[in-house]
Amino acid sequence: MENPLCPPSDPNFRLIETFGFAPELGCMRLDLHLERLSKSAAAFGIAFDRDQACDMANAITSEVALRCRMTLDPFGKVDLVTAQMSETPVGKWTLAVAPERLKSDTIWLAYKTTQRTLYDQTRANLPTGVDELIFLNERGEVCEGTITNIFIETAKRALVTPPLTSGLLPGVLRHCEIACGRYAEQIITLDDLNQARQIWVGNSLRGLIPSRMV
After folding, report:
1. What is the predicted pLDDT for the residue at 86?
2. Is the confidence at residue 114, as pLDDT, over 80?
């Protein structure tokens, strides 16, 4: 079957998975991260030795919580770098809307790679007092944050998260929340965000973080 994507000519291109390590639990949601990496590798036509990657992750030892970053290069080489987990700020995160719009049909949005200049630059330039910026697409639908997926309790008390068709990464935490039946996919507008009873942003590394719009 023909691969829909090819790795860019950039020698620094990598597929990425970021997950947490807890001393008492080991690597968090490792199977789901490796499954997503396997699917991404197949889409790009990159060889991926899942068993080797699993062994590398399971060899991690630490007495403190870690942030783990696994990468896969175009030649199938897996690297794993760990660092001590930083503290998640206490209290609600403050959210604002990013000035840039995403194109919902951009295929790159579906994969976590080093091709994320817009996300990195946006996060590096967060306005003072803002913890996360939320991207909208060309139709005004909520997509995702710079490092998080979006979850809300609507004014009608429904727990929902944007569908992939809006243009966003299929996050591992998002997958878990949908799979367990806690959240359903639904198009979310800016009005929905502003009228929501509750808002959370989150990822597999940090979990769900209570949030509020500016």
Report:
1. 87
2. yes
pLDDT recorded at residue 129: 94
Instruction: Give domain status of residue 55, yes or no.
Output: yes
Token pair in block for residue 150: 């979006």
103 and 175 inside one domain: yes
Edge-to-edge strand list for the sheet holding 66-72: 26-27, 15-22, 66-72, 78-84
CB within 8 A of 3, min separation 6: which ones? 42, 43, 44, 45
Residue 158: give the domain boundaries: 93-213
Retrieve residue 75's tokens. 């030649």
- β-pair type (132-137, 93-102): parallel
Q: CA-to-CA distance for 131 and 124, rounded, in angstroms?
A: 11
Q: Locate 179 and state its tokens.
A: 């799979």
Under DSSP, the state recorded for 109 is G
The CATH number of residue 138's host domain is: 3.20.10.10
Concatenated DSSP letters for 134-197? EEEETTSBEEEESS-EEEEE-TTS-EEE--GGGT----HHHHHHHHTTS-EE---BHHHHHH-S
pTM: 0.92
Which position has the token pair 């590398």? 56
Residue 2's pLDDT is 41
CA 133 – CA 99 distance, rounded (Å): 9
Domain finish residue from 31, 52, 84: 84
